């Protein structure tokens, strides 16, 4: 009889330890991993929609207009007329859409 009581107590303790760990992992997923995946997906969609003539802001803070696109890079023209080539992942914000959203 005492062996049965000891086994039941050990099983309940194990369940009491596993449930909080699972809850911590679920919370971690919804507050840390899922938002990062969503942000990466939105950025990839934004980069795919860019075209010639779009105004962009790079992660370095450079404002310019896209004048040429390649598979992985784009060429932007800055205010002084200089042209700089950037990787597509360097786009921070599509200024054309931001301006349109601000007017609406």
Automatic annotation (TrEMBL):
<keyword id="KW-0472">Membrane</keyword>
<dbReference type="Pfam" id="PF02699">
    <property type="entry name" value="YajC"/>
</dbReference>
<feature type="transmembrane region" description="Helical">
    <location>
        <begin position="6"/>
        <end position="31"/>
    </location>
</feature>
<keyword id="KW-1133">Transmembrane helix</keyword>
<keyword id="KW-0813">Transport</keyword>
<protein>
    <recommendedName>
        <fullName>Sec translocon accessory complex subunit YajC</fullName>
    </recommendedName>
</protein>
<dbReference type="GO" id="GO:0005886">
    <property type="term" value="C:plasma membrane"/>
</dbReference>
<keyword id="KW-0653">Protein transport</keyword>
<dbReference type="InterPro" id="IPR003849">
    <property type="entry name" value="Preprotein_translocase_YajC"/>
</dbReference>
<comment type="similarity">
    <text>Belongs to the YajC family.</text>
</comment>
<keyword id="KW-0812">Transmembrane</keyword>
<dbReference type="GO" id="GO:0015031">
    <property type="term" value="P:protein transport"/>
</dbReference>
<keyword id="KW-1003">Cell membrane</keyword>
<keyword id="KW-0811">Translocation</keyword>
């Amino acid at each position: 009889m005492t062996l049965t009581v000891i086994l039941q107590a050990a099983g309940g303790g194990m369940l009491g330890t596993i449930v909080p760990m699972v809850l911590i992992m679920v919370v971690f997923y919804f507050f840390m991993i899922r938002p990062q995946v969503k942000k990466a997906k939105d950025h990839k969609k934004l980069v795919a929609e860019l075209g010639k003539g779009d105004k962009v802001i790079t992660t370095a803070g450079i404002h310019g207009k896209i004048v040429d696109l390649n598979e992985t890079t784009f060429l932007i023209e800055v205010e002084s007329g200089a042209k700089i080539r950037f990787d597509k992942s360097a786009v921070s914000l599509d200024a054309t859409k931001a301006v349109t959203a601000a007017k609406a």
